[in-house]
Fold each of these.
Amino acid sequence: DGGITQSPKYLFRKEGQNVTLSCEQNLNHDAMYWYRQDPGQGLRLIYYSQIVNDFQKGDIAEGYSVSREKKESFPLTVTSAQKNPTAFYLCASSILTGYGTDTQYFGPGTRLTVL
Amino acid sequence: AQKITQTQPGMFVQEKEAVTLDCTYDTSDPSYGLFWYKQPSSGEMIFLIYQGSYDQQNATEGRYSLNFQKARKSANLVISASQLGDSAMYFCAMSHQDDMRFGAGTRLTVKP
């Protein structure tokens, strides 16, 4: 089955620790995205990547880092510099047609809680 | 800058009836895409329907249709014959040059 997987589903972190959220897709999509969702709010873009070894900051990149060493994988690291990391994190992917309006497909999400 | 507005924080509908979820957007670009996603309590965002800004016909996907009024910059989602499983958060989104923006969402509750 083609799709996007995220792990873990739930993650608990102590203050001052870095944690890495996994995102893998087998849809052969070129682009991948990370979003953050806070309770009662829409999604905000953290980082996105359209090609291996290249990525761009979104609206709220501070305190986060990413890598794109393989087309299928786009891990997100939440660093200790992120002031309020408790949130729901969603990974998405899409093809790139060049029209700029491609549908994004989402993984099941990771719920991060800082203790 | 692109902006998406969903003015209904919550909506109720009786099972088997139709419901319209409102979405307005603001952009000066002629080329853009409009999307609706469903987010059940499990959290996953499920793609429902897409409308391109140059599409002449309103998009339909099964029980979902998008009422696209370009001059009014609105892209309302219509769900026909509501089912209990339709209870969820619904998000409107707009994409331009690979930049997708989401509204704050509408929580739909279907009553039996």
Note: Chain A has no helices and eleven strands.
Amino acid sequence: EPEVTQTPSHQVTQMGQEVILRCVPISNHLYFYWYRQILGQKVEFLVSFYNNEISEKSEIFDDQFSVERPDGSNFTLKIRSTKLEDSAMYFCASTIYPDSWGVNYGYTFGSGTRLTVV
Amino acid sequence: GENVEQHPSTLSVQEGDSAVIKCTYSDSASNYFPWYKQELGKGPQLIIDIRSNVGEKKDQRIAVTLNKTAKHFSLHITETQPEDSAVYFCAAINNDMRFGAGTRLTVKP
């Protein structure tokens, strides 16, 4: 079963520091996403990415956030100057199509990176 | 953008009973409705989905129903087992996927 791989599984950082969260989507997928989940809360959409550019972003995804696909396999989320409220689980997801009519074309999520800002 | 409401937030059932989780969505253009199960410390895992041209779908003990007119959809789990205990999220997709707030299901042996 193909997987979305995220590293690291847990990252602790000082407030104000930059962090980069890494994801390797499934190889034949074309659309990539970042979501975050603050402890005990809902999974929130951050950004979608297709054809090397952002397709859509939420109000959470402000100027402190950026995404990049630096090579053919990695998809990264950078937080430039972390704040305490950035502490959350960050999930990467990928899919072939965002609204495909095919069977089992739902998003595939990685296991997440737990970011703790201290 | 799309807004997905999910109820209840917590649900406790006895093993063998049925569990029903309900969601509503706001964007009539949404056309795909997946359900995810999230176990502690893991990412969401797709368990079943339904497209907007279908009213009902079943996969063993799990079924989903969709009412496009009312813009609501439901997850039904029959003959619940302790391993069904998890947080369940509904979602709706038009351009991107938006999640409901989640339901913590506890199945008591």
Note: Chain A touches chain B through 24 residues (CB under 8 Å).
